[in-house]
Every structure is written in structure tokens, then in C-alpha cells.
């Protein structure tokens, strides 16, 4: 998540970027009704017609329930990054599985990305009640995008800019953060509405800066967006420490919360010096690759 966290749930634009750390999902059809899943989060075996719940596979199992595949299958999920850091692993797995099941049903790898995004978003809403779909849209399309939730609008944006992520060492689940903000907003709803509008205005200025290849202007918007997230109440002491350490580096143009906040990651625009930070630096780069399908002969 690049910009627009939380405000995107209130009709504003958000910006997201795909990164070069990927999730690989292999689906092998079976002749029976058994569903077998291999992943770092769980080893799972159940009957397609009576799927047993598993707390670590809620998105995967909801996709299977909603899409009703024609037979059982064996699924192997391998990630190039840890699920503990905020790189959108749940979104990537959800998109990959929806795409695999769509391709299996159709018998070819050509996908309608609008239907893919809609199905993946419906899955997330069924599991956790709320979610903008920005991370899903990024997984579907790749690259740097602008996204608005109402019609699942996606606008590709130019440039693959240098970034890094710094992990705080802990994270708060997104639904918990959303409830925290909602509770705080009850005391001052008009002020929170104004914050969301300012965040949306900031995102639109960032979009214009990117279209004009104005990197300093984009950086200014990122820094301002962090201040608005702080006002929203999702910046804690550790995140603030990371932000100001990063902004003190010569090679960093901007630093802000990435994701829902209250832990997880800070996004840096520019070149980070890992040796100067007492936090984990995640080496990532923006990538123009979204979801990809390949049929393999057995």
C-alpha cells in the first residue's frame, strides 16, 4: 500500500504497488472430491463437499466455497516472503487461487481481470466484513496503480520507483485497526470525514505528480499522507521512530506508514541504509508483474 490507507474505505483514491516478492500457487486436479493443501501456514486435507474450517486458511477455503470447483484438487502454496510482514500475502494468495480456479474451469489462461478482482474482493468481504480491495487490485494488475473502491476502478500509473520497507517487528490485524478508528471517529465524525477528504486530495495530487514524472512532488505527498495517518491515530512510537530515522538519510525522499498502521511496515521512497537502522529492512522493488497463469502438462 503506497497511499490512501483507510480513506479508500470512505470513497477516496488509494495508490498501491506490486513488488518483486511473489507467491507461487500450483493447482493439480484430482479425480476424487478431496482437497489437499500444502503451505507454510498449514497442511490441510478435507472433503470438497464438507470443507473443515482452518484458522490459517480462511481466505483459501472461502474462495473454494464460493467458486465450487468441479472436483477435488491438490494445492501447493510457496511464498518468497514471510506472511508476518505487510506485503499483502493474503491478497496475493486469494487472487492467485481465484485465477487458478477460473483458468481451470475455462481451460485456458486468458482471464477477465475485472471478474477476477470482483471475485477476490467478494471473498475478502465474506471473510472479514470490510476491505477496500487495493491490495487485490495491485496483485491482479501489477505495477503502480490508483484504485477507488466503489466501482473497483483501476488506473495504471507511470514509473517503478525505488522503495524499501522497514518492519516494526509486530503488526495489528487490519480489522482491529479499522475498529479502533471507527470507535475514535464516533467522538468527532466531522473531523474524521475532513481527514479522509484531505487524504483523498493528497492521493490525487500524488497521481498528478506521477503523471508529470515529478518525483519530489510525489515524495511531498507521501510525507503529508503520513502526517494525516498520524492524525487518524494509527502511528505509534515505533513507527514514528522509523519514519524520522529514514527521513534523516540522504538517500530517502519520503517515509510513511504502509498499510493499516499500529505496527507492520514503513515505506521509504529512495535508498535506505540498513546498517543505520535497528529494525528489519525488507529489500523490495516495485514490479510491473501482476497475476500470471501457466498450464503445465503432467
Automatic annotation (TrEMBL):
UniProt GO BP: isopentenyl diphosphate biosynthetic process, mevalonate pathway
Superkingdom, natural source: Bacteria
Protein's UniProt keywords contain Lipid metabolism: yes
Alphabetical keyword list: ATP-binding, Cytoplasm, Kinase, Lipid biosynthesis, Lipid metabolism, Magnesium, Nucleotide-binding, Transferase
Pfam families: GHMP_kinases_C, GHMP_kinases_N
Pathway(s) this gene product operates in, as recorded in its UniProt entry: Isoprenoid biosynthesis; isopentenyl diphosphate biosynthesis via mevalonate pathway; isopentenyl diphosphate from (R)-mevalonate: step 1/3
Domain GHMP kinase C-terminal: 206-270
Keyword Lipid metabolism (UniProt): yes
GO cellular component: cytoplasm
Record-level Gene Ontology MF annotations: ATP binding; mevalonate kinase activity
Domain (GHMP kinase N-terminal) ranges: 59-143
Protein name, per record: GHMP kinase
